[in-house]
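Review session, final week

We close the course with one last complete record, chosen because it touches almost every idea we covered. It is HET-domain-containing protein, a protein from Lasiosphaeria hispida with 572 residues. Go through it on your own first, then we will talk.
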Amino acid sequence: MLLPETFSGNVGTQERSVGEISAFRRLEGRVDEPKPDSPFVFSDPTVYHNARLSKSLSSNGSAALAREWLRQCSSHKACSLAKMLVTPDHGYPTRLIDVGGEQEEHSRLRLVITERLGTKPEYLTLSHCWGGAKILRLLLGNIGDFERQIPFDHLPQTFRDAAKITRQLGHRHIWIDSLCIIQDSKSDWRTESKIMGDIYANSVCTISALTARSSAEGCFAEGPAGDERNPLAFRICNLPHGLHVDCPRRLGTALRLDRAPLPLHTRAWVLQERILAPRALYYGAWGLAWECVECSATEGVPWGEASPFSPKASFLGICIRAGGTSEVLSPEEAAAVFSAWLDVRAAYTGCNLTYFDDRLVAVSSLVKRIEKLTSWKSLWGMWEERLLQELLWFVDQPSHRPHTNEYLAPTWSWAGIQGRVFEETAVAFGTGNGRGNLPTWIGQVVGTGMDAQGRGYVRLRAAVRGVVRRSHPGGHLVDKDRDGYAVASWAADTVEESTGAELAAGEELCCLLLSRSSDQTQDPALDLGLVIRRNATGEAVRIGRFWQSRGDHRPLFPDEITESDMEEVLIV
C-alpha cells in the first residue's frame, strides 16, 4: 500500500475502527508480534504506541517507554548476574551532577562531592562525542562556582538533554566526564580515568547520544538527510480480508547499533563504556533504542530480543559463565575469555583517540575485569600467560607509531601502533587451518621487565635466521647465508618500515620463529614469527611479522629445529 507523504487520517470500516495513521516522523523496519518469552512484557501497548507516535524523543511518550524498559530490566536473569561482577564500593565517582527533581527548575544544576552526601545515590552516566567546539568544563578555578550552580545556558545541548532525560527517568544525579573530572589537573585526570570503566559499570544506565557528532547537537537531534526519515508513524492497522498495514522502520527486529556511520561508536573511550555499563539508552536521529546484557529493543520492537553478538552481551556473558563455575578457569573457559578479549581489542583498536597517550588507559577497565576473572597479568596490553602467542599480533595494514608525551609501550606491544590489531587465528585458538593443524611453539619467553631507561622488554629464546630485505616495498626476505635461496613473506608494522626510503636494499634483519603448525592434514604447515632489527648493543626492536608455508621448496627454517638454531634475543 502506497500513501502520499501528506496523508493524515483514520483507516476504518463500517464494523470497527482499526487504526490511525498520522503524519509525524518515521521509523524503519518491520514490526512483528511479541513472543511469549519476550524480554519485555507490556500489559498496556499504549506505552510503546505513544513512543512511536511522538514527534520528538524528548516527549513524555519516549520517556515512558524508557522508564518501562529500565523497570523491567531489573528482573532479567542475565542482568542480575552481571551486577554481581561489579564491586559497588570500587570505582564510585568522586563528583556527580545534581540535576534536581522532576518538577524543579531546569537550570538548577550543581556539582556535588559524593563523599559529603552520606549515602551514595544512584546515578546515570553520559556517553557522547565531544566534537571540536569548546565546551563548559570543570576546572580548578570554577569548582566552587559549580558547587553553587552550573550555568545551564552555557551548557552544550547534549548536556541539557541528558539532564532532562535523567529527571524523566526518575533520577537526580548524572556523571558527565567534562563536568566531573577536573580538566586542567593531571593528577585528578589520572585518578578518575583509571576508574572510568567502573564508573559506568556502577551506574544505573548510560545515556548515549549515538548520532550526535559533537556535544552541541544534543540527544534529540534530527537526522540531516531527508531520505533517512519517514513522515509516517502510526499504529499498526489490521484491515478486513487479512490486509495488514505496516510502515518501514529505521530499526527493525535486529538492533543494528554497529552499522556505519555512528559517530559515538568511532570513539575508543566509548567501547568500554558501552560494554561495562549495565544498560544503555540510545538516542539517535532514527529513534530510541535499548541495550542490556539480556536483550536489545527499539521503538519498533519494544518487547526486545536477545542480542548475543553485541559487545556487551558477548563480553559480559562470557564473564558471567566463566566467573560462575569455580575459582580456577577450565582451559575452555580461559580460551573463551581470551577470544572475547581479542574481539574487544580488534574493535577498540579500530576506533579513534584524540590523544594517543590514552591508548592503554582507555581500555584499562576492561583489562582489569579480565585480570580479576582470570588472575592473568597484563603487560602493555598483552597477557603474560599467553605472551608467546600474543606477540604474533598484526595490523590490518601498515600504520604509524604516533609520538607520545610519555613512554607508552615497547615495540613488541600492539599498544604503540595506530591501527586495527588482529591475532593469527591458528595461533590464538590452536585450531590451525580449522581441521586439526595445531601449532607447536618453537619459541620460549625467558623473562620480561623494564630496563634502566624505563622501557619494557621481553627476552625470548627462539630459532633465529638472518635475512636480507628485498628492495621493493613489501618485498620478501631472503636468507642471507644461502645466496637468496630461502624466501619468506612478511608485513611491516608501520608505513615507515614498509616504504621508507632509508631502508635500502640489502638491509640485514632477523626472523624469529615462534610457532609452527604441525602437518596433520593435506594443507602445508605454516611457520610464523617476528621480524626484528638489531642494534650495535645487541638489543632488538620489532618491525613486523613473517610467515612461510612449509610446503615451499625453499624453507627458511629446517624441518628439525636443533639447539644450534636457538638464540636468546632481547626485544625492547
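Two points worth writing down before the exam:
Residues 440-571 form one domain.
The chain is about 25% helix and 25% strand.
Good luck, everyone.
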